[in-house]
Amino acid sequence: MDPKAFVLGMSALGAGLAVCAVMGAGAGQGYAAGKAAEAVGRQPEGRGVIMSTMLIGMAVAETTAIYGLLISIILLFANPLLGQV
Question: Quick check: is 4 in a domain?
Answer without folding.
Answer: no
